[in-house]
Design brief:
- With 393 residues, the chain is an alpha+beta fold.
- It has two domains: 2-67, OB fold (Dihydrolipoamide Acetyltransferase, E2P), CATH 2.40.50; 95-381, BirA Bifunctional Protein, domain 2, CATH 3.30.930.
- It has helices at 18-21, 25-28, 81-86, 88-91, 95-117, 156-162, 202-223, 225-231, 247-256, 269-279, 327-336, 345-348, 365-372, and strands at residues 2-7, 10-15, 35-44, 52-63, 121-122, 128-129, 141-144, 147-151, 168-176, 189-198, 244-246, 282-286, 299-301, 304-305, 307-312, 315-323, 358-364.
- The strands form four sheets. The chain has an eight-stranded mixed β-sheet, with helices on both faces. Strands 1-2-4-3 form a four-stranded mixed β-sheet, with no helix packed on it. A three-stranded antiparallel β-sheet has the order 6-8-7, with no helix packed on it.
- The mean pLDDT is 95.
């Protein structure tokens, strides 16, 4: 009898002979997807699919799979994304699905190494916080021993504080936004690669981000070649010299295409679709209106800010810019955003102790991976995604 076994590293053929095992009944009674233990000798195979095979001397069923299964991990019988997510551990036995998460792990490993080589120190900041990181209503509120607390939207305020002493820091972690978007590119719990650096301006951190994307993509293509082959895809090419356009220039392009947007308007789906046709690939949009950016972004005059977004086509991958490093201006911007500076007193005090000019960004790892592996839904790149309707498994 012949049997194909699979583990997390790949597949192999096993040959069972009654003369060596004594009985083939245990093999015959094995259901698909059961967990088994085999001991035998590795030998060359005559099979066209396997250059080597295992000629079994011993066989045991460790855990028998009960049928019917909720989905077919081989992928021969298609299952909806919801069914797959409800049964994620079984779904991960599909080689295509497993390949996505091997690529994800490689990307995060590569990003950590690149940032460390650039002199950034990895840090871990709290995810339970006492005040809004960026203002707004998209916060998950919680009862913290009788006090009001929130799940962190980002590590923003902490990483700014750390530039006082550590100068260059980064964090890769999960963050939370209570937005009711139920789209193919939004999640309520997401993984972000965040950096902050003292004495960097917005162009310095844009250069760092571009370098990270280009180097990560190149190395991911090399190290993840087998997994990309399984997926029959490859990450889009990334070359240094991403196009850069100002927000005002973007409005001119959109007006020229018949989409009349007033100054200060955010760039929504149709606007981004048009810009993606004009620029394609990766590109930066800089100098956004101050009204559309958080309170900590440095104003640049004329209602604009020292900010940028990194786009790939119509997909926003990162947002960042230069931060305010003077307490008086920061308090003014808090009030302008309708926030009470007294609620940020623990943060503001650091700005009297020698806070250097600093800049940074947050880069959406899930969105980057969605684009890199050619997925159509961000939930395909997250093991257990959380959105407005999904709170399981």
């Amino acid at each position: 009898m012949f049997q194909v076994l699979r583990d997390s590293r790949g597949t192999t053929q096993v040959v069972y002979d009654k003369g060596r095992l004594g009985s083939l009944d245990p093999v015959k009674g094995t259901t698909l997807q059961s967990y088994v233990w085999v001991r035998g000798r590795v030998a060359r195979s005559k099979s066209r699919n396997f250059p080597y095979e295992i000629r079994a001397d011993d066989y045991r069923i460790v855990a028998k799979a009960r049928h019917p299964l909720p989905l077919d991990p081989s992928g021969s019988i298609p299952a909806s994304l919801d069914v797959r997510l409800d049964n994620r551990p079984l779904d991960l036995r599909n080689p295509l699905v497993a390949a996505i998460f091997r690529i994800r792990a490689k990307f995060l490993e590569i990003a950590r190494r690149i940032l460390s080589e650039e002199g950034f120190m990895e840090v871990q900041t709290p995810k339970i916080i006492s005040s809004a990181t960026e203002g707004g209503a998209d916060l998950f509120e919680m009862n913290y021993f009788g006090r009001k607390a929130f799940l962190a939207q980002s590590p923003q305020l902490y990483k700014e504080q750390l530039t006082m002493s550590m100068e260059r820091v980064f964090e890769i972690a999960s963050y939370y936004r209570a937005e009711r978007f139920n789209t193919a590119r939004h999640l309520n719990e997401f993984t972000s690669v965040d950096v902050e650096a003292a004495m960097y301006d917005k162009f310095d951190v844009m250069d760092l981000l571009e370098d990270l994307v280009v180097r990560s993509t190149e190395e991911l293509s090399e190290r993840g070649g087998d997994d990309f082959s399984i997926l029959d895809s490859e990450p889009p090419k990334a070359k240094r010299g991403f196009p850069v356009m100002r927000y005002g220039e973007a409005l001119e392009v959109l007006n020229g295409r018949g989409l009349k947007l007033p100054f200060g308007e955010d760039l929504g789906g149709e606007a981004l679709r048009i810009l993606s046709e004009e620029y394609g690939g990766y590109y930066f949009v800089i100098d956004w209106p101050m009204d559309s950016k958080p309170f900590y972004i440095q104003p640049s005059g004329d209602g604009l800010s020292e900010s940028f977004d990194l786009m790939y086509g119509a997909l926003e991958l990162a947002s960042g810019g230069q931060r305010i490093h003077e307490r008086k201006l920061l308090e003014e911007m808090l009030r302008a955003k309708g926030l009470d500076p007294s609620g940020f007193s623990d943060h503001l005090k650091f700005y009297e102790w020698g806070m250097p000019p600093h800049s940074g960004w947050g880069f959406g790892a899930d969105r980057y991976l969605m684009m890199a592996v050619g997925a159509t839904n961000i939930r395909e790149t997250v093991l257990y995604p959380r959105d407005p309707v999904r709170l399981k498994p």
